[in-house]
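Customer escalation, tier 2.

The customer says the design service returned an amino acid string that "doesn't look like it belongs to this structure." They asked us to rerun it and document both sides in this ticket. The original structure tokens are below, unchanged.
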């Protein structure tokens, strides 16, 4: 697909079919989201999917406190 005279292609990570409609998800570490090439790709992907009425989300790891809580609780899982 062309955008601003540039050939673009991107394969997102997940396609979820939910009650609200198709949802496309990209997963990327939070520290990489501000990189220009990532930001441009995700903005282009969002625009293309929203034109079709689909939902687009970007997921990253939880914040440090939430991650520490998950690691702590994981020790109490049943085998």
């Amino acid at each position: 697909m062309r955008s601003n005279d540039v050939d673009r292609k991107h394969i997102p990570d997940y396609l979820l079919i939910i009650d609200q409609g198709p949802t496309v998800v990209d997963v990327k570490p939070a520290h990489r989201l501000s990189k220009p090439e990532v930001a441009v790709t995700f903005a282009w992907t969002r625009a293309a999917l929203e034109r079709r009425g689909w939902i687009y989300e970007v997921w990253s790891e939880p914040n440090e406190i939430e991650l520490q809580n998950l690691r702590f609780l994981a020790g109490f899982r049943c085998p």
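Tier 2 assessment: The sequence is consistent with the input. The mean pLDDT is 91. Residues 2-74 form one domain. Sent an explanation to the customer and offered a walkthrough call.
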